[in-house]
């Protein structure tokens, strides 16, 4: 249940006219009162002799009783209270009880003998009510409505629990501002799926991803087609900025500009600058210049680098200090934005939805210790500079690898937020993870299918040997992995790693132990990408020649699984001979 307290207005009759009217799109049906301050207010919707003026004059009486100079300029208080789409249709009596609790909690009409304001609750749809009040109490004073929005939210959480309604995660003041009803109606009239505020927020987020200077940031905004206004001090210093969509105009035909801070708390210019000021900490000018000049060789190279950086970030979020973990979580949002911006068509929608959902999880009251997140921000930068991926061949395989790693980082972020009591952020991260799960299935289908076919062509003795190897290295997971369709893709990957000189038992043990696997749909898939990344194997196996372990090639002789780093290549004596 979402209460939305709006700023106070100056015309009671204007608000009542809207509430009892047909709505801008004929969406209002059967407007009527469900409750009022005295339970006897005239209802223009149900009483044939009652008028809007009657109700307005009744509500405004305490205001008009004041001397003209003492009347508040803006005396109209308004909130809507909306049920979740999954809730049942509440009765008028249930809505009346909710309205009384909201006005009491917000100080509009506190009850218990205390003087309150006059108010009325109007219902013109199944799923919500509007409460209108006048901000002068019966004894002529201003009500104690300080932070009425937060108080309404707190009461709504209690109402949800007591009535068995959908429970909304409590907020902490770090969420981006929701679009107003006027902005939503305007978007509908213009045929937009989203409001201008939401489109601008996404464009600014993508412009920030991996950026390293004011100039680069504003160049990206301009390239995205946004109109930009900069706020400059008399000294010439840049203080802030506003952005607008070229075709989002006000009634005078002028573009509607939004300051960065009104799009999201972390999109103000000072907060954005913290990102690239952190990048420069502990880095020499020469190193910084080299990094700026660096370009990934291809979209696939950028994705491989992203997978590596994300994998390392998981451990930091799990075990790092709070500020460092918060920085990595915020930078993970940049990586998601960059990946969505450069993704192929068949993964674009889910990655976009993942980035949009995770935006809420990228902020909390834990202040990010910028500078520790350089590797993730560099990954985001490389993705943007590497350009769009076609989604085939190495592009497709490395995309699957990057998404697989991101799934674990975003899941880890959800767990971190949950431990900190950040309910909204934890929920947002979990939703992002589900979108990543779907995107992975689309991205991995072709590369995993190629590896599956290679695994199916392995000779029976080799498969038997690898099953035994799996049971020895991962006894607790072996049965589950062998039952998965991805087992053959894993077998092919182990064969490739062994063919180039890696100790397969040590490699398997190492990659399985590094991060949890319980949230994976397919453990074998996860191990495939971890091994291919750790052993530096090509992500796309379709162009590789078959190894000696395939077809008629004889099985390599068994070697002892000595403790070793997964990247350590064997000596010439340890390496099995290859035959064609």
Helices and strands in order:
Elements: E1 2-9, H1 12-20, E2 32-36, H2 52-64, E3 76-82, H3 92-105, E4 119-125, E5 128-134, H4 148-163, H5 181-190, H6 196-208, H7 214-223, E6 227-232, E7 238-244, E8 258-259, H8 260-263, H9 269-280, H10 285-293, H11 299-319, H12 322-341, H13 345-358, H14 374-386, H15 393-420, H16 423-456, H17 460-473, H18 478-483, H19 487-499, H20 504-514, H21 523-534
Helix pairs in contact: 1-2, 3-4, 6-7, 6-12, 11-12, 11-14, 11-15, 12-13, 12-14, 13-16, 15-16, 15-21, 16-19, 17-20, 19-21, 20-21
The N- and C-terminal alpha carbons lie at a distance of 67 Å
Number of helices: 21
- Residue share in helix: 40-55%
Can you tell me the residue ranges where pLDDT is under 50 for at least 5 consecutive residues? 548-580
As a percent range, the share of strand residues is 5-15%
- The rough form would be described as elongated
Biggest beta sheet summary = 5 strands, antiparallel
Mean pLDDT: 88
H/E element sequence: EHEHEHEEHHHHEEEHHHHHHHHHHHHHH
**Strand elements, count:** 8
Strand order of the largest sheet: 1-3-5-4-2
* Tally of distinct domains: 3
Structural class, by secondary structure, is alpha+beta
